[in-house]
Each structure stands twice: as structure tokens, then as C-alpha cells.
Design goal:
mainly alpha, two-stranded antiparallel sheet, 2% strand
């Protein structure tokens, strides 16, 4: 067995694919979060109220849940090269719309559409999975996810300076338009720089598009059950904007959205049954079977890792400022302390993937999720009597386990069923957003202490669930176009 080490300074072969793909993900995150660091300037320019600002922030993530499912289907059908290039090019359109918006309605529509670019992450998971052998897959997917995720932090660092460089009251518009131009240019570069598989390899596609194939009738019911929280999270977002929540939607609009969400669920249900009904009437050979519980457990693991990260990053600056303002901490210092949570992505995600490659998928994921539980339990005890350095250390350690857990999840995703890697990655990724929506909703009702304890308790339950996941071993089978069976090594 060859070394599992990767030469990060190589720009040929599979390493070129890795570097080109994490950069595509990085740019998609710059575009997705280009509004956040400029929100004060945008609000001042368009005279937005606090309620309208909050609406923009919610709309930015609303479309990401269904779009991750849709992109997963598209990448399995059309391949990562065409799907990523198309996504980046299309995402430039709402980017330019946002930069040119003259009122709240135009701004809100552009931001809602921008949520689609948040699904870009799913595409690279399939691309990296095609190019890297199982023994290097965890660390490669970790680099892809961790370095690409840094795009949101890069936007926060670079865009205010870019807006200032342009100057004037429209500086923010030019800065955001620049990110759209960057996405458009890179979509062309990516298309002409990568291929879906190494030369001579086959790109396996699902027999039918529209939903995941499962291999037993019980897995079909399990799959349907696991889709319900995706639509429940969209309903929760609608409720937050409704007359009983933030009072930003009329009652008729709210009811219309609820009906639309659950009609979409019924359509998804139809597609799940349609895709699976024919082949489930025939006995499926054991080599072609997989257990849906593998996907379901990874869904839950990502809900508690990435989902908690989304929620905690949103509330941490204010939490640190409120807790330590007596000690003289400024909002800027609180923001810098809180940013350590996101910065850990650069090393912790690849670290989680490396642990998974070296010590086993199940063990690494178990350790990371238990680490999350302990980390959040410790964070729930932070108060104004703590030394700031100790609070930072606890946050830093908790963050490591959270991001490493994300890496450990996606070290396993491509090893379940090759031809459906995009759809599996999409569903797992969508569960991360479900976690973010759920935990932030919990935060709106409870104290930060109870919020951290809720995440810790969820992590304990997920850690127990992880014990039922099966360590990927041996080979997975895929059928070639000529009808022969290809055996793909997964250890």
C-alpha cells in the first residue's frame, strides 16, 4: 500500500483536481457570504430596518437545503466538471442583481436566489471521491472542505477593504460585483482545467434521476422518514418570518409558503417511490446492496457538527462581548476571538479526514462527536468569572472537534455507493443546514448556557447512533455500461 501522504505543492494529476476544486468551493463561499461584512454599509445605503437586515440573513440560507439535494442529483447525472462550472456561472447573476438592487425587495430576491450557491460544496465531494484512493480520501476531502470553507472568512477580511478602495456610497456594490465577476471567470477556468475522472476510469451514474436508489423496502421507508426534517426546517424558517415570528410575512404569504413546502415534499415522495419501485420488486444481489442507515447516521453526525458550527459562529461574537464586557473586551476583540471557531477549518477538517484514513472511519467519527459533546458542555459553563484566555482555549478545543467531525463525516460519504455520491453528499450537507436552523431557533428561546447544553445533549445521542454505523471495508460494486461489474476498493 502506498503512502497516504499528499504532496500539497504538486499541481498535476489528482492534486491539480484537488486544488482547482477547493478553490471553486472557496469562491462559491466568498459569493455566498459577500453580504455579511458589508451589511452595515448596505443597510445605510438602502435605509434598511433591523427586521429587514435579519430577513436578508435568513433568506441567504433558505434555498440551500433544497438546493443541496437538487445539486446532488445533477452532479451524479452530469458530472462535477459541468455542474460546478454551471453553478459558478449562474451564481454570478444573483450576485450582480444584489449589487444593483435599489430597494429591499430586489435585495431580498437576489439574496434568496444566492442561497443556491451554498450547494457548491456537494459537487467537489464527488469530484475528489473520483480521483483519490480510499486510503487518501479522508485527508483529501478534508482539505477540499476546510480550505474551501475559508471563503467566508476571506470575504469578511477582503471585501470591506475592497469597498473602501472603490470608495463612495456605492463601494459595497462594486465589491460585491467583483465577486460575481470572479465566479464567472473561474467557471470557465474550471471547465477547461479538470475532468470528471482519471483517464480510463468510468463515471458511474444512477439508473434513474430524481431520488436516491435504496436496496430494501425497509430502507425505502427509512429514506422517506429522513427526508421529513428537511421540509420541517424550511417550515421552521417560514415560521420565523411569519406573523407569529418576526412579523415579516403576511398570513396569506406564510400559508402559501407552507403549502408550497409540503407540496414539494409530496413531489419528492413521489420521486423516491418512482425511482425505487421497479428494482425493489426484484431480488437485489448482496454485492449491489448498501444500508441506508449509513447515510442516516452521517446525516445526524453532520447535523451536530456543521449544524452547530453554523449556529455558534452566528452567536459567538455577541456572546463573548456580553460575557466579558466588564473585563473591557470590545466588540472587535470579541469578533476576533469568535473567528477562531471558523479559522480552525483550515487544519481541523483535513485533520479529521487524516484521522479517519489512519485510525478508521467509525472510531474517528465517534471520537470527534464525543469531543463535540464534551466541548459544548464545557462552553456552557463559560461565565464572566472565567479568564478570557481559558474561555478562548475551551472554544478553540471545542471548535477542533466540531470541524474534525465534519472532516470525518465526509471521509466516509464517498465510500457508501459511488454512483450516488453526489446525492448522499447533498442529503448529508442539507442536514448540516437543518442543524443550523434548528439550533438557532433553540437559541431564540433559551439562554446561551442552555443552547450549548442542547448541542452537547444532541451530540451524545448522535455519538450513540454512530456506534451502529458499519466501517467501510472491502469493495463496492458498480455496473459498467457493458454489463460487467467493477469492484472499487474502499479500504
Amino acid at each position: 500500500m502506498s503512502s497516504s501522504k499528499l504532496n500539497l505543492f504538486s499541481f498535476t494529476g489528482k492534486m491539480q483536481i484537488l486544488h482547482m476544486s477547493w478553490l471553486a468551493f472557496f469562491i462559491s463561499f466568498v459569493v455566498w457570504f459577500n453580504h455579511a461584512p458589508l451589511m452595515l454599509a448596505i443597510a445605510e445605503s438602502l435605509k434598511l430596518s433591523q427586521a429587514e437586515i435579519k430577513t436578508i440573513l435568513i433568506l441567504n440560507v433558505a434555498l440551500t437545503i433544497p438546493s443541496r439535494i437538487a445539486i446532488g442529483i445533477l452532479v451524479d447525472k452530469f458530472g462535477p466538471k459541468r455542474t460546478y462550472s454551471s453553478l459558478l456561472a449562474i451564481s454570478s447573476i444573483p450576485c450582480f442583481m444584489f449589487a444593483a438592487a435599489d430597494d429591499f425587495q430586489q435585495l431580498a430576491l437576489a439574496r434568496f436566489l444566492m442561497g443556491f450557491v451554498g450547494a457548491g460544496f456537494v459537487i467537489g465531494i464527488r469530484m475528489v471521491g473520483e480521483w483519490f484512493p480510499a486510503r487518501q480520501l479522508g485527508v483529501a476531502e478534508g482539505i477540499y472542505g476546510g480550505w474551501g470553507n475559508f471563503g467566508s472568512a476571506a470575504a469578511a477580511i477582503a471585501l470591506p477593504s475592497l469597498a473602501l478602495a472603490f470608495g463612495g456610497e456605492n463601494g459595497w456594490r462594486y465589491a460585491i460585483a467583483c465577486t460575481g465577476i470572479m465566479a464567472l471567470l473561474y467557471s470557465v477556468i474550471y471547465f477547461f482545467s479538470v475532468s470528471d475522472t482519471p483517464k480510463g476510469s468510468t463515471y458511474f451514474k444512477p439508473k434513474k434521476a430524481g431520488a436516491m436508489e435504496v436496496t430494501s423496502i425497509w430502507d425505502l421507508f427509512f429514506y422517506i422518514l429522513m427526508t421529513i426534517p428537511l421540509y420541517a426546517a424550511l417550515s421552521l424558517l417560514t415560521w420565523k418570518l411569519s406573523p407569529t415570528g418576526m412579523q415579516l410575512l403576511s398570513e396569506d404569504t406564510t400559508i402559501g409558503l407552507y403549502i408550497g413546502i409540503w407540496l414539494l415534499f409530496l413531489y419528492n415522495l413521489y420521486k423516491i417511490v418512482h425511482v425505487n419501485q421497479e428494482h425493489l420488486t426484484q431480488p437485489i444481489e448482496p454485492i449491489h446492496q448498501y444500508k441506508f442507515k449509513q447515510v442516516a447516521i452521517l446525516d445526524l453526525a453532520y447535523l451536530v457538527t456543521f449544524g452547530s458550527e453554523l449556529a455558534v459562529v452566528s452567536m459567538l461574537p455577541l456572546f463573548f462581548h456580553e460575557t466579558f464586557k466588564q473585563a473591557g473586551i470590545t466588540p472587535v476583540q470579541a469578533g476576533l476571538l469568535a473567528s477562531s471557531f471558523a479559522f480552525m477549518n483550515l487544519v481541523a477538517r483535513p485533520g479529521g479526514g487524516w484521522l479517519s484514513d489512519k485510525y478508521g472511519r467509525k472510531l474517528s467519527l465517534s471520537v470527534c462527536v464525543i469531543g463535540c459533546a464534551l466541548g459544548y458542555a464545557a462552553m456552557s459553563q463559560i461565565n464572566s468569572e472565567w479568564p478570557i484566555a481559558l474561555a478562548f482555549t475551551v472554544t478553540f478545543l471545542c471548535s477542533f472537534f466540531v470541524q474534525a467531525g465534519c472532516g470525518a463525516v465526509y471521509a466516509m460519504v464517498p465510500l457508501i455507493k459511488r454512483r450516488m455520491t453526489g446525492q448522499i453528499a447533498g442529503m448529508v450537507g442539507a442536514y448540516g443546514n437543518v442543524g443550523g436552523v434548528t439550533f438557532l431557533t433553540v437559541l431564540s428561546f433559551v439562554t446561551p448556557e442552555a443552547f450549548f447544553l442542547t448541542i452537547a445533549g444532541t451530540a451524545v445521542v448522535v455519538a450513540l447512533a454512530v456506534q451502529f454505523i458499519e466501517e467501510p471495508a472491502g469493495h463496492m460494486a458498480e455496473i459498467m455500461e457493458d454489463g460487467s461489474v467493477a469492484m472499487i476498493e474502499i479500504v
